[in-house]
Amino acid sequence: MTSCNKMFKARRSIRSFDERPVDENVLAVILEAGTYAPSGGNSQSTHRIVITNPDVLDRLRNLVQQEFAKMEIKEDTYKSLKNSISQSKQGSYVYDYHAPVLVVVANKKGYGNGMADSAMMIENMLLQATDLGIGSCYINQLHWLDDNPVIHRELMELGLQEDETITGGVAFGYATQWPKNELKRTGNPITFIR
Asked: Alpha carbon of 11 to those of 51, 180, 181: distances in Å?
C-alpha cells in the first residue's frame, strides 16, 4: 500500500523565521503554484498582494496590533481571536511572526466560492513552499479585520480593490527550526458508505 506524498506530512505551520529574504525565483515558483489552484467555475478571481518591503510589513504589523488592542473580548469570542486581542493589549502581538514575505489573499465581495477558492490557492502555495524548504503559516488575522476601516484603507493603498474582501493570508520565510517529528493526527474523521 502506498502513502500520501511526504511533502504533505512535512508541511507545518512555521512561526519563527530568520531575517533572510526569500529568493525571488523561489517566491515566483510558490506564487505560480497558487495560480494553478482550482476555482469555482474557473473564475480565477483570487487576488494576491505580495509584501516584501520591511517598512510596509512593520507598518502593517503596528496597525494590526493597534486595531486588535481596541477590541473587547466577549464570552463567545473565538479562542485565537481572544489571543490576538489579549496580546495586542499587552503590546506584544506580531500576527505574521516577522516573516520576510506576507501574501494577503482577497477575492470578490459576494462571490460564494471566494473563501474556498482562496483556501485552495493558499494550500497550493503552502505545499509548494514546503517542497522548496520554505516555511509558511496560514494567517487569518487580516480576514478577521476585513471590516476594520483602518486596515481596509491600508490594504487598499497596497492594492486591494474596492470590490474585494480579504479572505486570508500566508507568511513565508526560512524557518529558524523545522520540526523533525511527524505531527500526530487524531482528528479529521472519515466515514465510508459502501
From this structure: 22, 11, 11
Residue with cell 460564494: 112
Cα separation, 80 vs 58, whole angstroms: 22
Interior CA angle at 126 toward 120 and 127, to 5°?
Answer: 95
* pLDDT 10s digits, 26-38: 999 999 999 999 9
Q: What is the per-residue pLDDT for 51? A: 98
Phi, psi of 6 (to 5 degrees): -60, -25
Rounded CA separation 168/154 (Å): 16
CA dihedral in degrees (159, 72, 97, 27; nearest 10)?
Answer: -20
Kindly give the residue spans of alpha helices, DSSP state H, lying in the chain.
6-10, 24-35, 54-69, 79-89, 114-131, 141-144, 149-157
Distance CA 167, CA 116 (A): 9
Distance CA 189, CA 166 (A): 30
Domain ranges of the chain: 11-55+95-173
What is the grid cell recorded at 56? 510596509
Among residues 17, 185, 36, 165, which one has the least CA distance to residue 96?
Answer: 17
Query: Looking at domain 11-55+95-173, what is its CATH homologous superfamily?
Result: NADH Oxidase (3.40.109.10)
Determine whether 20 is exposed, middle or buried from the number of CB atoms within 10 Å of its CB (0-12, 13-18, 19+): exposed
Which residue numbers in the chain have pLDDT < 50? none
Q: Chain centroid to CA 136: how far?
A: 8
